Amino acid sequence: MPVLLEMREISKVFPGVRALDRVDLSVEQGEIHAICGENGAGKSTLMKVLSGVYPQGSYDGEIRFDGEVLHLKGIRDSEARGIIIIHQELALVPLLSIAENLFLGNEVARGQVINWPETFQRTERLLAKVGLKDAPTTKVEKLGVGKQQLIEIAKALAKDVRLLILDEPTAALQENDSQKLLDLMLELKAQGVTQIIISHKLNEISRVADRITVIRDGATVSTLNRAEITEDRIIRDMVGRDMAHRYPDREPKIGEVLMEVRDWNVWHPDQAGRQVIKRAGFTVRKGEIVGIAGLMGTGRTELAMSLFGRSYGRNISGEVLIGGKPADTSTVARAIDAGLAYVTEDRKALGLVLEEPISRNITLANLAGVAMRGILDKRRETRVAESYRKQMSIRTPGVHQKAVNLSGGNQQKVVLSKWLFTDPQVLILDEPTRGIDVGAKFEIYNIMNQLAEMGKAVVMISSEMPELLGMCDRIYVMNEGRIVGELPRGKASQEAIMALILKDSGKAA
Amino acid sequence: MSDSGVSTGIGTDVRARLGGHLRENGMLLALVAIVVLFVVLCRTVPPQPIDFLSAQNITNLFLQNSYVIIMALGMLLVIVSGHIDLSVGSVAAFTGAVAAALTVKAGLPVWLVIPATLAVGGLIGAAQGYWVAFWRIPSFIVTLAGMLVFRGLTLWLLGGQNIGPFPKTFQGMANGFVPDLFGDLDQAALGLERLNGTAVLVVVAAAMVLIWLGLRARARDTEFGITPEPAGLFWARNIVVSAALVFVGWKLAQFRGLPNVLVILVILTVLYAFVTENTTAGRRIYATGGNEKAAKLSGIRTNRLVFWCFVNMGALAALAGMIVTARLNSATPKAGTGFELDVIAAVFIGGASMAGGSGKIVGVVVGALIMGVMNNGMSILGIGIDYQQVIKGLVLLAAVIFDVYNKNK
């Protein structure tokens, strides 16, 4: 196969940091090339160099595309050559239609006047290519994240793409949407579109990628061929050491029931008559890690948020018992007082005040813990934050750094610190390792085990089944707002979980 | 997600921190520069040289701008919480009219009128805050409506006429001075015709407290492992500020002493600085403006906080309204017109962010002083209201551009 893209000895220096240190990357015509690396390894920086976000002259090294040296001045230059990048944060305008989004900035027009019939025709053709049947006039906000991701790809196809770069395309997708997207990637490959995929999900990479380049600390570690690809090998190259176990060992010391939820019902906040949680009930014991499995959109987050101070839904009914006594969880403050903590799925939007320092984020849910009669003791606050920094090994030059400057894993540790400082009995962790690299995941798992060791009850919601299987003592399976089954550690497997879900869906249908 | 995470973070933060110092010092420097500019212009431009820093003009400066500063303190809280209040000018006018009606028409004593008017202001704030906080109606719209409603109610209450005059005690709020505790003693001793010993003593004490607080904050920064700003910069700033304080005090002492308004102003500024930086309530307001959802999920009752920010704003607008009315010695239908713009401009010049979550009381006071000095200086120079507005607008724009530029750099 001829080489389509050749990046040679790319170095990029930010003030005080060498983000890329002579990275080499070579992508062959027609292949799917995966780039792996921990957060902060330099993957996104490399892609920004390739797409012209960092223009020629702001980095060292050479980019050859189709044998020709590229001098990119900006994104427009790279797009003109057919190098198109789809970012993790989707760049669609929610209130515009699919057709309008597909040709945004690239309108089918005569002069300044848009040719709608042709726009719609082309839109339909593009939608067919990515396997969508929605009307071109549908507003993008009406589509789920999975479909929006496909629209992004269709948008790239509208521009005669030669090299398609997908930055963590499945991060926000549920299992079956992810599968669809991966299928589409393979189909595009068959049509000759060269692709680069950046992903944390090793099973996906090993499914679609022809070759993998692993980057660590801003330098290329290895490029592996299909035959050499194994998850263990990738992980070893990514973190620079062998990871004997992906999940830390734990000797469970399980005590009496700490929290019990009975007959929990929640209705949708806006759509009248739609019941989101139906008669859900579960228990968690002291020192136990309990998982909640289920497909996305099945109501796991809604269950957690409605339990935590009724932060979601309306007409909530049911009973929460903590330590055998009915607990008042009707507002967030009361839920915290009752010993509940909830680590949100979306730490940037819901978990952190990004522009505030780490220390202020850590004390936010328990300001009384660092104040006397409403007056803050900033010394005490700093001491508290410092002790969590050490305990959680939050990697930062100081607790007065803004939270926004931390990597995903360290941000998650800040959120966990915040909740530990409220001294909870029960922690509900919603996708605690989403968007976090392998090394940091392991640290989060360790923290979870320590919490269980301390006698806390931990509820873990996750879309990654291997993670649930590796961490949990017991797993509840949710489907369409109901808890449809419970699997103890010994009996839990991906097949068993899926079987419960499918059986329930079959009943409903 | 896979950006060069922590490491670039350090770089940006160092810059951000320097930027922060740059911002605060920059504003102060701008204030000094503007004062110097007007001193020079007032000396050279008019046919008869005018002393911009005369005791009388300094007194005037505070009397004229006190209400902008007072309202800016409340506006900072509103803006930090992520909202805005466009109604403050109209509310000040309306509450001024209420005070006039109660004092002049109903003949109520001053000690009753002042708390009653503050309560009216608080109620107005509550009425607007209710819709903003609990019904989630955009504050821009609620307070735009309030701006019209209370201007209208002012006209209605005053019947299109001025109400006055006020008893001396009420006027004293705006035009009175703190009596000199030392009487004539010091004047004889120092051989000056008139010198208010209290004023001198107070400013010297204030300067010393300020330096002491600064040193303490520095010591704490070092203890926390925050790199403090360079010592040279710290002392340069403190010497300039202290010298300015003592100079102002000296000048005031030679005129009529400390204006009552200035005392109110200083007490409020210290109080609000303390509340915003050292109390849980203040912290929660910043968190609410910074990320309301995260604050809510941390157990903070963000709606109530926003509501109380508006109540507070209403009460401060009422205080400002009374001071304006006392100063003019009559309530007029046109009072407070355009105040909201000066107040909001002062807050943004002072470094608050439109998005909420950031801004400091000290910055706001400096911002308000910049606006005030420009108003006063341009009026002395006889610059027309047309040019004045153009210049003030450009200064606001420049200050915010400076901010954004610093952040992006």
Automatic annotation (TrEMBL), chain A:
Q: Which SUPFAM superfamilies match?
A: P-loop containing nucleoside triphosphate hydrolases
Keywords for this protein? ATP-binding, Cell membrane, Membrane, Nucleotide-binding, Repeat, Sugar transport, Translocase, Transport
Query: Its domain of life?
Result: Bacteria
Is the Transport keyword given for this protein?
yes
Q: Name one GO molecular function term.
A: ATP binding
Statement: the UniProt record of this protein carries the keyword Cytoplasm: no
Q: Which residues form the ABC transporter domain?
A: 5-242, 261-505
Q: Please name the InterPro entries in this protein's record.
A: AAA+_ATPase (IPR003593), ABC_carbohydrate_import_ATPase (IPR050107), ABC_transporter-like_ATP-bd (IPR003439), ABC_transporter-like_CS (IPR017871), L-arabinose_ABC_transporter (IPR053466), P-loop_NTPase (IPR027417)
Q: Which NCBIfam families match?
A: GguA
What is the recorded name of this protein? Answer: Multiple monosaccharide ABC transporter ATP-binding protein
> Mind giving the lineage of the organism this protein is from?
Bacteria, Pseudomonadati, Pseudomonadota, Alphaproteobacteria, Rhodobacterales
From TrEMBL, chain B:
Q: Which UniProt keywords are given for this protein, alphabetically ordered? A: Cell inner membrane, Cell membrane, Membrane, Sugar transport, Transmembrane, Transmembrane helix, Transport
Enumerate the Pfam families for this protein: BPD_transp_2 (PF02653)
Q: Where in the cell is it found?
A: Cell membrane
Q: What is this protein called?
A: Xylose transport system permease protein XylH
Has the keyword Transmembrane been applied to this entry?
yes
- Summary of the function given for this chain in its UniProt record: Part of the binding-protein-dependent transport system for D-xylose. Probably responsible for the translocation of the substrate across the membrane.
Name the membrane topology term. Multi-pass membrane protein
UniProt main location, coarse: membrane
- Species the sequence originates in: Tabrizicola soli
Its transmembrane ranges are 27-46, 58-79, 110-133, 140-159, 195-213, 234-252, 258-275, 305-324, 344-370
